[in-house]
Structures are given as C-alpha cells and as structure tokens.
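One such given next:
>
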Amino acid sequence: MENSQTPLFERVLFFVSLYNQLQTVKALVKVRLTIAVIITFTYAFSFSQTISAFKTGDKWGFKKGQAVIIEPQYDSVFGFDQTQQVCLVGSIDPKKQTVNSLTKQIKIVYTFKYINPENERLYFKAPNSLDSSSEATPTKFCGSLYHTYTNLMIACVSGKKILATKKGVQISDSYDNMNFTKVPGFYTFETNSLLGLIDRSGKPIIPAGYSKISFNTEDSLIYCCTAGSKFNGSDDIYNYKGEKIHTSTKHIQCAGKNYVIYRLYASENSFIVFDVKENKERNLKAEYIYYLKDDKVALLDDDWFFYDLKTEKRTPMDKTLIKYMKLDE
C-alpha cells in the first residue's frame, strides 16, 4: 500500500510554488526606489544582528555582528537557528577516545549539547517530570531539525527525538524518530518502526500504526498507509482534528472531500473511484493518478491528462507543461 504522495506529485507542487515566487519577484522589481532603500537598510540592520560562527585555530566561537559573544572553545558547531535562540555544539571528549591496536589510529569522540546565545547549556525537561536531559545525540539531519523560524524544534536527546521549545521545555514524549511535515504544526513520530502524528502541543492525534503518512493540503486530509506494517491492515483517512473519516482494506491512492481513489495491485493499471456522497464505485483505467484539487487529478494513460472526477472528462495536458514539469521522465 504505497502512498500516493510520490516525488512526482511533489515536483508538480514545487513548480507551481516556483511560478508563484517568480511572480512575487516581478512585483518586487516594480517597487519604488525609496521603498527599496528602506528594505536595503532593514536587511543591513538584520545582518548586523545575526549570530555567526568564527574559527580561531582549531576552535569555534560566535559573533553577533562584529561583537564576540562566545569565545572560541568548541570543536564542532552547527550554527544558530533562524531565530537566534539555540545552537548545537560539540567538543572532543578525551576520556572517550580509543586507539586501534592494529593501526594505532585514534578514534575521536565528541560530546554534543544545545546552547543559547549566553553559552548556557539547555536542559530538556518533560512536563510534570523532575528528570531532565542535556546530552545531545546528533544524527545525520539533526541540524535541520532545530533550524526553524518558529520557537519549536525537534531535539535529538539521549538517543531519542522530542518536540521542544528553544528554551529547553520538552513538549512531547520521546520517540525513536521524529520529522516535520509539509503542514506547519504537525510532526510525524516513529516508535517500534510505526508512524504516528502529533500536533504542536505534543498531543498524538494519529496513533502509531502506519508505514507512511501524507497530506492533501487542499482538503485538509491525512492519508495513512499500513503496507508492510500490519497484516491485512487498513488504509485510513483523517481530518486535521485527528478524526478518522474513512477506512478501507484497499490501498488509498489519493482522496479529496468528495472522492476516494483506490489502487488495485491485483490488476495492472486498475483503479476504483469511490463517490463519497453517492456511496458508489466505478472502475478507472490509468497508469498513475495524482490528486490536484477541486475533484481533479493528473492522470497518466499513455499520455498525461487532467481528469475531472465529477464529470469524468479528460483534458489533454499541454506538451510544454509536461516537459516543464518533467512528467515525461
């Protein structure tokens, strides 16, 4: 039961977003010179307040503008986040170094922690708990998990991941893994190789039990797939409140407010369109289907079409659009 939100679908949304950004840039070019000067000075002021890392010898420290706020003392730094509240830093721990008996090579071990601009170590404390933890255990992508424009971050602490504030307040339980989603305020969590979803308050709104979770942001729906995680499991659709509004033993390819599309793997290029209001099903032949919005999908059946789920009308996609969005790859 693979999920419908594939890289190809993401690519379509990316180019739409890119187009909108280009239009914004064109509009900004037309702004009067006096406004442009104000913007320039605003950005210059912002830059002077930015905390940046600098290196002296083998050690890293930090400056705010030109003023040194943390003297060079760290062996590894990930930089302060966009809100200038927190930074992940590391120091070589000589007590944990080991020497290979054959090659005599020294294995360097770092200890990591989160600090604030005052160089104070952050201790993450769960609500209603006396215990706190400050040992950061970074993973490959841990730097991006706190580099956000909000006051919330995903912290890598004691081998787990937690949702926390950048002041060190733990909001969620500890999980094996956590990640951001395309919808601000929602975070996937993983426990025992099963995915669930929490909101910004740390409250689980979708229990762990799925292999993949994706979003239809146009209709505020969440698709949850159980392929590979449950024997004879069901695919489910939730709203943003965490209420389950649809379930099926068939694989849910995509869905909107009025239609759900199932993919039948037993038969090649076979889909079923389920009309939610009429409670009726009909077969649909296609190679791939991606939900767009307003009961319309992108459909591949030898060629690419826009397909209206309500009227069942197919409209050929412009060849230039197909090439531009790389749908032919």
Q: What stands out?
A: Residues 1-6, 18-47 have pLDDT under 50 and may be disordered.
